[in-house]
Amino acid sequence: MNITVIIPRALQAACEGRAKIELGVPSGSDLGEIITTLMTLYPGLKAFVASEKRPLRQHFGVARAGQKVFLFTSTVSPNS
């Protein structure tokens, strides 16, 4: 199955400057599997993933609509 991932400007540098990426993933792949594939191909995206060990002021979120996956950035207040 082919999935189109739309990359916002703020994350394009982590994706070799691309605004859109076509991914071939197994049929029935869930959003987590798609993001894992994307992060394997573009490891620079991992810098935008917040965790307990690495809280960030800016990170990305994900939404899926059929065959398209949209990444978006979100800025978090340092006091949040």
Structural notes for this entry:
The structure is a single chain. The protein has helices spanning 9-12, 31-41; strands at 2-6, 20-24, 58-65, 68-75. The chain is α+β, with helices and mostly antiparallel strands. Strand 3 and strand 4 form a beta hairpin. It contains two helices and four strands. It starts with a strand and ends in a 5-residue tail after the last strand. The protein has a four-stranded mixed beta sheet, with helices on one face. It has one domain: Beta-grasp domain (Ubiquitin-like (UB roll), Roll), CATH 3.10.20.30.
* Strand-pairing-aware structural class: alpha+beta
Number of domains: 1
Question: Over all CA atoms, what is the radius of gyration?
Answer: 13 Å
Please name the CATH topology: Ubiquitin-like (UB roll)
Helix percent band? 10-25%
Order of helices and strands: EHEHEE
Provide the spatial order of strands within the biggest beta sheet. Answer: 2-1-4-3
The largest pleated sheet is described as: 4 strands, mixed
Q: Could you give the distance between the termini?
A: 38 Å
Unreliable segments (pLDDT under 50, ≥5 consecutive)?
Answer: 76-80
What would you say the CATH architecture is? Answer: Roll
CATH class (first level) name: Alpha Beta
Count every helix, treating DSSP H or I runs of 4 or more residues as helices. Answer: 2
CATH H level, superfamily name:
Beta-grasp domain
The total of beta strands comes to 4
- What overall geometry do the principal axes of the alpha carbons give? globular
Instruction: Kindly report the average pLDDT value.
Output: 80
Work out the strand percent: 25-35%
InterPro entries: Beta-grasp_dom_sf
Organism: Archangium gephyra
Protein name: MoaD/ThiS family protein
